[in-house]
Q: What sequence folds into this?
DNA sequence: CGCAATATTGAAAACGATCAAGGGTCGTGG
DNA sequence: CCACGACCCTTGATCGTTTTCAATATTGCG
């Protein structure tokens, strides 16, 4: 479905790179020493439940998608992972999810201590993993609500607003309300349970309605306030804990 | 939405009761000593993110539902919890979920060690919580796929087959393939993202099609094999890890 | 420059929601 | 014992949304 583009490359991750994480995350995650940094190109598979042994992966920069294929040939996106997110746990194996890079991505890789009873693990490390899993569950719970009980406009609006909120204030240009977004319309459709064609129509309606524009990999909120009202998006769902 | 029927009652949970858990679960969960047993009547609220302080709750017997209300007035069911499931974590607070009893229910309650950095916690306890969260994520991931990429028949078929698989072999009568199910059609609709009316029609179609019957709180598989094929249900998704 | 992936639009059809009305069951109180 | 209300189930008719199919741009990239 997504064409991989070569083998995984291992690189050095400089301190500067790690500090691309927000201050809070950096303080917390920097406890995770001994990880192996790796980078992936867009389209590459980072983790595949079928081939790979469980390990812990933290996304340092870039976008990744965790999805699964169904027997009927369709795909469902379980979540889009952003910098700071833990993108792999043994649960992905249970859930049969595959993680792929959507942009150039840097991850830190750790051995999966949760499978080895013998490993002595610091409570602090356990706490970090637990926290990440709780946040993931909160995101999944929100996605469930999105797909299950909202119409097409609300679903796509919610998804893009969620991503904007999780990314934090944009640093693209001054006075620009939006973000760089490597998703295709097919990705969005697979995330909100709609066909690609319909995502296209919904995005057009939003554009002509002066709500938001998504072209050439850039999402711009033309009127974020009105969009939030229209899809009734509650920002406090995602702040401050979930970001 | 569901009328509570009185205050929560605290009772003794005999060893016999705890052993209602499957052997594996019992062996594992019996490490959890010091919990407080409680029982709830159908319709009672077990945990409400708005009122309650985080704590860990394990379902010993009965059915519970974890759901959330959306600003647009609709409800989404995040999961149905069965015996052995951990039904409350701090993530429910993030995700704004409420847990209610669907039948008479017994739970074991523990303080939430994950919020208190000071608490010395055994790695074993951490492991149990982690395992439960992984299983919950796997279930949520499956529910996401169900709602997002399947039609009405497949969704309801999958849900009922999943519940049957998680419950294990029925002990109702010999040669009976089915289970006692305290869900209403509205519960099912809120779990799979369909209207109550449509759930009703789908169940009728399944009944007249000789696939399954759900009447008076009893789900009976009239032809489980054909149903599984029709909705292409892959049992290995749920066995053996997830049960 | 050319190919492959992605985006765009229209028309027709399928699917599920909604509205409306009625039926069954259970528990409670007169 | 029956009447009543609450809750849940059931069915028909209609409406609206979203899917599907098909054809045509457009974009990105080697």
A:
């Amino acid at each position: 479905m997504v064409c991989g583009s070569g083998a995984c490359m291992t690189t050095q991750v400089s301190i500067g790179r790690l500090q691309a994480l927000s201050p809070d995350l950096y303080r917390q995650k920097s406890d995770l020493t001994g990880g192996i940094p790796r980078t992936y190109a867009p389209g590459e598979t980072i983790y595949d439940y079928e081939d790979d042994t469980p390990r812990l992966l933290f996304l340092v920069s870039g976008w990744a998608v965790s999805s699964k294929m169904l027997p009927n040939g369709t795909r469902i996106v379980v979540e889009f992972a952003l910098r700071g997110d833990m993108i792999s746990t043994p649960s992905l194996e249970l859930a049969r999810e595959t993680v792929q890079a959507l942009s150039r991505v840097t991850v830190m890789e750790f051995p999966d201590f949760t499978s080895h009873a013998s490993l002595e693990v610091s409570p602090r490390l356990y706490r970090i993993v637990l926290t990440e899993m709780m946040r993931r569950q909160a995101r999944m719970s929100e996605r469930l609500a999105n797909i299950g009980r909202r119409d097409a406009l609300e679903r796509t609006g919610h998804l893009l607003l969620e991503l904007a909120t999780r990314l934090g204030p944009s640093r693209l240009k001054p006075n620009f309300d939006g973000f760089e977004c490597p998703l295709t319309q097919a990705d969005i459709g697979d995330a909100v349970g709609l066909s690609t064609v319909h995502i296209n129509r919904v995005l057009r309606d939003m554009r002509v309605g002066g709500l938001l524009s998504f072209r050439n990999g850039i999402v711009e909120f033309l009127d974020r306030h009105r969009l939030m009202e229209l899809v009734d998006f509650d920002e406090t769902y995602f702040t401050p804990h979930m970001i």
In short: The domain at 15-121 of chain B is CATH 2.60.120.10 (Jelly Rolls). Chain B touches chain A through 50 residues (CB under 8 Å).
